[in-house]
Amino acid sequence: MADVGLPVDEVYEPPARVREGALVADMETYREMYRRSVEDRDAFWREMAERFLTFSKPFDRVVEEDLYTGKIAWFIGGKLNASVQCLDRHLAARGDKTAILWEGDEPGTNRRVTYRELSEMVNRLANALRRRGVRKGDRVAIYMGMVPELAAAMLACARIGAIHSVIFGGFSPRSIRDRIDDSTCKAVITQDEGRRGGRAVPLKANVDEALAEPGHSVEFCIVYRHTGTPVNMVAGRDEWWHDAVANEPAECPPEQMDSEDPLFILYTSGSTGKPKGVLHTHAGYLLHVMCSHKYVFDIREDDIYCCAADVGWITGHSYIVYGPLGNGSTTVMFESIPTYPDAGRYWDMVDRLGITVFYTAPTAIRAIAREGNEHVTKYRRTSLRVLGTVGEPINPEAWRWYFNVVGEGRCSIVDTYWQTETGGHMISGLAGATPMKPGSGSLPFFGVQPCVVDEEGRELEGNGVTGRLCMKASWPGMMRTVYGDHDRFVQTYLTTYPGKYFTGDGCHRDKDGYYWITGRVDDVLNVSGHRLGTAEIEGALVGHPAVAEAAVVGYPHDIKGTGIYAYVMLKAGYTASDELAKELRDAVRREISAIATPDRIQFVEGLPKTRSGKIMRRILRKIAEGEPENVGDVTTLADPAVVRDIIEGVGRAR
Ligand code: PRX
């Protein structure tokens, strides 16, 4: 959206009903806690770790970090297990409390899974995995839909020290295989089918296709039966979940994990190459997500908390599964989409389930806002207290709609800025304390030390500055490495501005110290809150026999935030046609996922390149954004005429 990232001179105080009884109810408390978290970092995090986590062996030191070599460790020497934090600790006081409140694809299809039931599910599956040879440190891929068993599968891996790698259910067989191969997964946990907006998602069939070519590392698959649609079961490899756990005891001794032992890998797109396996660990990650979940949303014991993201993304890992379950909350798991059966689905669900804290993405807010207020006002929404947003900058117009129409001015909005790599919230208000500005993530979370640098890496001091967002020190939930490629971790995040973690985002710090994210400054796209790399999409396009070269850029899109614009140069002998554009879209879908499908494809005769052969994306971006007059100086290009041709051809984009 055009107005994203520009400061808006409006301030909204947290409503009194939200402030009342809040954990942090005023800015003095926030400021004092924040000050301690950076000035007296060890003591602050020691105290938080002791309050939020239960170590079976206490840690010796709080943190050791080197932001040049990427050696980062928190709570050194401690022993614990993430599944114990999320389950066992709650059984005595909260055994019968609903842990997961599931809302299926059809409105009103619900399942309540108590902490005790979830614990049993997890323990049985953990035993089944162990019996099949899964050991501490082994990788297990999970390719499932939004069902409670998905959370159980993650926690079962954690329990035996296996590293889970959840693959978003929208990814293609090719993408599944790439991820399985990259981390040599020993097993896959999947389900027959998922459901989304009235449609079936062929999860098991996709896994079959992913594993069709030999040469993979997968020894067995466990298949959860959800829809009951018959699926192909490969003898000797595939087994039903219910059969696998049938005779397993409901108790499985947890592996004692070192604070720094890996908990999971989650693949995410960068500017170059294939998606990388972001690795998070047991103690630091868990503490960060629990602590931020608690403070940012101001979680209370009887909250019905709902994050409407997908567990296949980091938002779901941190704020559907680990944060809320670590805190003993009731977490809603939503299988459907915001527009099914109509644009009122969220608020219908809010009323039926009594949801008090609701967390979604700007793209969903925009998609339902345009369908009309009546979809909102026909529901009461009186249970709501806190609204959250995540995934991309929210434009002030959508923010105001969320605040005024959905929240009727009675709820706080927390705009949480963070990344797969950061594990948890980095910049966000606290629901009960922070004055809100529409479109700003506001202020750093505890322990987070943001800074704004110019292109040369000089830190811009003071307020009213614009540049690139970095972090000056590590924080507990920071990724530890790229799985199997530590150099890539250092190269990608720590070398652009040596000694600092570079987010890849541009930002403005306003006169009050509030941060406004202006979006990615690299070749990463944020499409409907899904993160994609332009290089991956280009790779899929070039894989088609007709394509000589392709360049992909983002452009502002009313609903998706960012749309995908592909410039495609054909090989000799091929001609541009709608048919070919369709084939290319299909190729991207097949190679990556439907979410990566280009919105616009423009066939071009040539791409703007420097004399050394580098594609000038800046120019392509301006053209895709509909600002050809701002392409800037093109005289240094190898062939300046291509720019004019491309501008002339915009109207013929398909
Ligand atoms: O550009 C920022 C944007 O999403 C990127 C991270 O994407 P991903 O790793 O998929 O994680 C998304 C969910 C945490 C960031 O580099 N982003 C995320 N949240 C916000 C945001 N941009 C502005 N405001 C936000 N609240």
TrEMBL record:
<keyword id="KW-0479">Metal-binding</keyword>
<dbReference type="Pfam" id="PF13193">
    <property type="entry name" value="AMP-binding_C"/>
</dbReference>
<keyword id="KW-0547">Nucleotide-binding</keyword>
<feature type="binding site">
    <location>
        <position position="544"/>
    </location>
    <ligand>
        <name>Mg(2+)</name>
    </ligand>
</feature>
<feature type="binding site">
    <location>
        <position position="315"/>
    </location>
    <ligand>
        <name>CoA</name>
    </ligand>
</feature>
<dbReference type="InterPro" id="IPR032387">
    <property type="entry name" value="ACAS_N"/>
</dbReference>
<feature type="domain" description="AMP-dependent synthetase/ligase">
    <location>
        <begin position="88"/>
        <end position="481"/>
    </location>
</feature>
<feature type="domain" description="AMP-binding enzyme C-terminal">
    <location>
        <begin position="536"/>
        <end position="614"/>
    </location>
</feature>
<feature type="binding site">
    <location>
        <begin position="391"/>
        <end position="393"/>
    </location>
    <ligand>
        <name>ATP</name>
    </ligand>
</feature>
<keyword id="KW-0067">ATP-binding</keyword>
<dbReference type="GO" id="GO:0003987">
    <property type="term" value="F:acetate-CoA ligase activity"/>
</dbReference>
<feature type="binding site">
    <location>
        <position position="505"/>
    </location>
    <ligand>
        <name>ATP</name>
    </ligand>
</feature>
<feature type="binding site">
    <location>
        <position position="547"/>
    </location>
    <ligand>
        <name>Mg(2+)</name>
    </ligand>
</feature>
<dbReference type="Pfam" id="PF00501">
    <property type="entry name" value="AMP-binding"/>
</dbReference>
<feature type="binding site">
    <location>
        <position position="531"/>
    </location>
    <ligand>
        <name>ATP</name>
    </ligand>
</feature>
<comment type="function">
    <text>Catalyzes the conversion of acetate into acetyl-CoA (AcCoA), an essential intermediate at the junction of anabolic and catabolic pathways. AcsA undergoes a two-step reaction. In the first half reaction, AcsA combines acetate with ATP to form acetyl-adenylate (AcAMP) intermediate. In the second half reaction, it can then transfer the acetyl group from AcAMP to the sulfhydryl group of CoA, forming the product AcCoA.</text>
</comment>
<keyword id="KW-0460">Magnesium</keyword>
<dbReference type="InterPro" id="IPR042099">
    <property type="entry name" value="ANL_N_sf"/>
</dbReference>
<feature type="binding site">
    <location>
        <position position="589"/>
    </location>
    <ligand>
        <name>CoA</name>
    </ligand>
</feature>
<feature type="binding site">
    <location>
        <position position="542"/>
    </location>
    <ligand>
        <name>Mg(2+)</name>
    </ligand>
</feature>
<dbReference type="InterPro" id="IPR000873">
    <property type="entry name" value="AMP-dep_synth/lig_dom"/>
</dbReference>
<keyword id="KW-0007">Acetylation</keyword>
<dbReference type="InterPro" id="IPR045851">
    <property type="entry name" value="AMP-bd_C_sf"/>
</dbReference>
<dbReference type="InterPro" id="IPR025110">
    <property type="entry name" value="AMP-bd_C"/>
</dbReference>
<feature type="binding site">
    <location>
        <position position="528"/>
    </location>
    <ligand>
        <name>CoA</name>
    </ligand>
</feature>
<feature type="binding site">
    <location>
        <position position="520"/>
    </location>
    <ligand>
        <name>ATP</name>
    </ligand>
</feature>
<feature type="binding site">
    <location>
        <begin position="196"/>
        <end position="199"/>
    </location>
    <ligand>
        <name>CoA</name>
    </ligand>
</feature>
<feature type="modified residue" description="N6-acetyllysine">
    <location>
        <position position="614"/>
    </location>
</feature>
<protein>
    <recommendedName>
        <fullName>Acetyl-coenzyme A synthetase</fullName>
        <ecNumber>6.2.1.1</ecNumber>
    </recommendedName>
</protein>
<feature type="domain" description="Acetyl-coenzyme A synthetase N-terminal">
    <location>
        <begin position="30"/>
        <end position="86"/>
    </location>
</feature>
<comment type="similarity">
    <text>Belongs to the ATP-dependent AMP-binding enzyme family.</text>
</comment>
<keyword id="KW-0436">Ligase</keyword>
<dbReference type="InterPro" id="IPR011904">
    <property type="entry name" value="Ac_CoA_lig"/>
</dbReference>
<dbReference type="InterPro" id="IPR020845">
    <property type="entry name" value="AMP-binding_CS"/>
</dbReference>
<dbReference type="Pfam" id="PF16177">
    <property type="entry name" value="ACAS_N"/>
</dbReference>
